[in-house]
Amino acid sequence: MAWGEEKKKLEVKVKKLKDSVMGADKKLKANQVEVDEMKVAKEVATEEATTKIFGLQQAIYYEHVNAFQKALRQEDFLFKDVSMTDFRFNVNLDVYDNRMLDMSEIKHLEAEQEATGVDNEGTMLTTPPANIDEVV
């Protein structure tokens, strides 16, 4: 009898274990479905973002090209009498501080201005006291 009772107890235990394994398997499958759905959603979002970025890159490129074409049209209109083959025409010149300067000189002046701006950043500019009868 002890053997029969022990067998029944073990069968009940095995059935409970099988049920818990089946429940865990169902949960695992449900979680896998959820993970797969999240993965698909992520791929869709990535594709949409990539498409949007590509569209923005194209828009920036076309705006750049259109602005350059506009500048060429303006140049053609404003400088009809200027010949690019003239020896006085220099593509290395640009407008800086209301003067036509060489690009290398502009870079040098900008570097100097930046350096003096950093040096004077912490100092306060004051006007010197008035000089009255040579007494300060």
Tags for this entry?
single chain; 136 residues; mainly alpha; 2 domains; rod-shaped
Short description:
By secondary structure, this protein is mainly alpha-helical. The chain is built from two helices and two strands; from the N terminus they run αββα. Helices cover 69% and strands 6% of the residues.
Oligomeric description of these chains: single chain
**Strands ordered across the widest β-sheet:** 1-2
Structural class: mainly alpha
Rounded radius of gyration (Å): 40 Å
**How many alpha or pi helices?**
2
Segments where pLDDT lies below 50 for 5+ residues?
Answer: 120-127
- Average per-residue pLDDT, rounded, comes to 81
The tally of structural domains comes to 2
**Main sheet, how many strands, which sense, barrel?**
2 strands, antiparallel
Estimate what percentage of residues fall within beta strands: 5-15%
Number of strands: 2
Secondary-structure element order, as H and E? HEEH
Overall form: rod-shaped
The span between the termini is 123 Å
Percent helix: 55-70%
Protein name: Flotillin-like
Secondary structure elements and pairings:
Blueprint: H1 2-78, E1 93-96, E2 99-102, H2 103-119
Antiparallel strand pairs: 1-2
